[in-house]
Amino acid sequence: MSAFEPDALAADFAQVRRVLADFVAARSPRDWSRKTERRAKGWTLHQTLAHLAATAEVLYQAAENTLRGLPVSFPLSRRTELAAFNERSIAERLHVLPQALADALFEILAHCAERCSILTDVKTGTLSFWR
Q1: Which contacts of 86-93 are long-range, i.e. CB under 8 A and separated by 24 or more positions?
Q2: Residue 35 falls inside a structural domain
Q3: What pLDDT tens digit does each residue of the chain (131 aa) get?
Q4: Number of domains the chain is built from
Q5: Does the reported pTM lie above 0.90?
Q6: Is 33 inside any structural domain?
Q7: Which among 10, 65, 112, 129 has most CB atoms closer than 10 A?
């Protein structure tokens, strides 16, 4: 079995969801404002969760479009735009409580796990960002 077989992908999405759910459940409200790095420019846990939710939304939409035969577009066209994308997407989500961000992320992970059941070798080959 390879890592890109539907059952393996579904299990991976379910495992990531469980790990993140345990992590989120163990946080106190005060933890979310704690920096994740020692340097001043590091993100808080809340910002990190906002980043994960934003990234998951973009990649999930790309995968859905690919599976439906629709064009895939990303909110940036060059790697040099990544920092601005991260800053903007985090800022857009900071008003959302961490638990709500986590719930949105968990929903995407659950959808991804469900969608794995329809994948075939041909479809996983077209999802080049998974390779």
Answers
A1: 86/51, 86/54, 89/50, 89/51, 89/54, 89/55, 90/43, 90/47, 90/50, 90/51, 90/54, 92/50, 92/54, 93/50, 93/53, 93/54
A2: yes
A3: 666 677 888 889 889 999 999 999 999 999 999 999 888 788 999 999 999 999 999 888 888 888 888 888 878 888 899 899 999 999 999 999 999 999 999 999 998 888 887 766 544 554 444 44
A4: 1
A5: no
A6: yes
A7: 112
